[in-house]
Amino acid sequence: MSSDAAVRVEDRVLKLTNLDKVLYPEFGFTKSEVIDYYTRIAPVLLPHLKDRPVTLKRYPNGVDGKWFFEKNAAEHRPDWVRTMRLESPGSSKGNETVNYVMVDELATLVWLANLAALELHVPQWTVGPRGGKRDPDLLVFDLDPGAPATVVECCRVAELVRTVLDDDGVDAWAKTSGNKGMQVYASAPAKDTSEYAKAIAQRLAKEQPKLVVSTMAKAQRPGKVFIDWSQNNPAKTTVAPYSLRARERPTVSTPITWDEVEECQVVEDLVFTADEVLARVEAAGDLFGG
Questions:
Q1: Model pLDDT, residue 92
Q2: Is 117 exposed, middle or buried (0-12, 13-18, 19+ CB in 10 A)?
Q3: Largest Cα–Cα distance of the chain, in whole Å?
Q4: Where do the structural domains in the chain lie, given as residue ranges?
Q5: Of the four, 7, 112, 215, 270, which is 20 to 30 A from 39 by CA?
Q6: How far apart are CA 53 and CA 51, in angstroms?
Q7: Topology of domain 135-235+243-284, per CATH?
Q8: Residues 82, 34, 118, 70, CA torsion sign
Q9: CA separation, residue 67 to residues 54, 99, 103, 260 (Å)
Q10: pLDDT in tens for each of the 290 residues of the chain?
Q11: How far apart, in whole angstroms, are the C-alpha atoms of residue 70 and residue 57?
Q12: What is the pLDDT of residue 280?
């Protein structure tokens, strides 16, 4: 493949640039491989992005270079890229807006991959066709290990979270963060998701003080797992299932089974690269959200 190429994606034509640029130097993973991954994973990824405004983490000079968050859609976007202008929930005046990209077709995903938007982050709520924000449809517990704790300890905490949710009649599913931790998700119960998640985090911190913390205070976190319930705040986003992460290797936020959670004994049990995730999806389909 030459460094630049014009390609047809369904009924769109895109110009792809710098395809041989290495974005993951330690792994030799190029921009063309990033685009290939997002193209092939699209059938299971796109449903999880549907109607959710996307926040991008862009790495134009690769994972070792400077990166930036991008909420506003790029000015030079193709005219077919759908955007949605929404009030910015973090605005103190309540009148600032953000023009988000809505990733509802493969061509938009390929266009973003060409921008080196390696990471895709989404909120726990969706928007209607005219931009009305809907109530959260997802509940998330972001499990963040404080060294020397790892994803192994996160798995033990994920099992505790699942038990509490199960007692409340709520089904839960899990994915790796693609970084150090993992997330447990459920369909949003008919109550304030942030308060509900906070109550569960505080309860588990009280019941398992040697393993769980529910506050952000760094001093309390070494060797424990922080249950970040605040990800349910409407202003927050969480990495999307099947998104790449900007690590040394092209790891992916990977949906996993509860058997894999229970059987995890070492970190490498739950580290999956792009190729491995494509193989998993081919073998088992989408494990996320049932």
A1: 46
A2: buried
A3: 58
A4: 5-133, 135-235+243-284
A5: 270
A6: 7
A7: Alpha-Beta Plaits (3.30.70)
A8: negative
A9: 16, 20, 21, 32
A10: 458 999 999 999 999 999 999 999 999 999 999 999 999 999 999 999 999 999 999 999 999 999 999 999 999 999 999 999 998 766 544 558 999 999 999 999 999 999 999 999 999 999 998 889 999 999 999 999 999 999 999 999 999 999 999 999 999 999 999 999 999 999 998 779 999 999 999 999 999 999 999 998 888 889 999 999 999 999 999 999 999 999 999 999 999 999 999 999 999 999 999 999 999 999 999 999 76
A11: 6
A12: 98
In the numeric block, which tokens belong to residue 177? 């963060």
The amino acid sitting at 47 is P
Query: Is it true that 5-133 and 135-235+243-284 share their CATH fold?
Result: no
| DSSP annotation string for 236-276 | --EEPTT-B--SSS-BB--EE-HHHHHH--SGGGG--BHHH
The superfamily CATH assigns to domain 5-133 is: DNA primase, PRIM domain (3.90.920.10)
- Residue 45, token pair as written in the block: 């990824």
Tokens, residue 235: 């202003």
Task: Looking at the chain, list the stretches that DSSP marks H as alpha helix, in order from N- to C-terminal side.
Answer: 31-49, 106-114, 151-167, 193-207, 258-263, 274-284
Q: Quote the tokens at residue 55.
A: 């926040």
Q: Residue 191's pLDDT is what?
A: 77
End-to-end CA distance of the chain: 38
Classified as helix, coil or strand, 279 is: helix
Give me the DSSP letters along 11-22.
TEEEEE--TT-E
Q: What pLDDT does residue 190 have?
A: 72
DSSP letter assigned to residue 127: B
